[in-house]
Amino acid sequence: MTPTKLLIISMIVLAILITVDVLLPDRVDRRVEFMSQFTTREGAIYELKWVEVFGLDWQKSFAVTLAESDGKQMAKSIFRRNGKIHHAYGQKQVVGLTLAYWRKRAEFFGIKDTNKYSLEFNIFSGCGELAKWVDYYEGDYIKAVHVYNVGFGDITYKRKINPKHIDKWLTEYTVIKNRWEKFKRGE
Fold first, then answer.
1. According to the model, what pLDDT value does residue 20 have?
2. Counting Cβ atoms within 10 Å, is residue 185 exposed (0-12), middle (13-18) or buried (19+)?
């Protein structure tokens, strides 16, 4: 069995377990309550669902959401790459080709609405893409977030990590981490 097939099978099993609410409800509810300060409750629930399915650190993944869109579901950004104009959509700010890649996999995971602004599909696509790069870079979130932001095609051995975007992501991650600790203590 190829590693890709094994990964897909393990993601399916985990998605089923999450769907059946095997996760501790108190833990999930507390995180949803915390994350809802920054985004919608529905967005927080989907973020936690797909973070668990793809095996990501929920705080680091949520920091990507805040760094990319400030938690806004209908966010859209326009950027120029290699002389062409591109767009990134939704809460996870996923680009068109990445959406097309994950659209082919969405039905397999039970996602029917694959509109670029569909909250679940957008978060599913973003978490899946981030997980792909975290796995590729063997757990190095800084490199994974860099590729998530600029695209793998633009990465060469000569190109340095974009310090502005990484600084923004690290700031969001630090804020989330610190606020989560205070939230757990009831402060």
1. 45
2. exposed
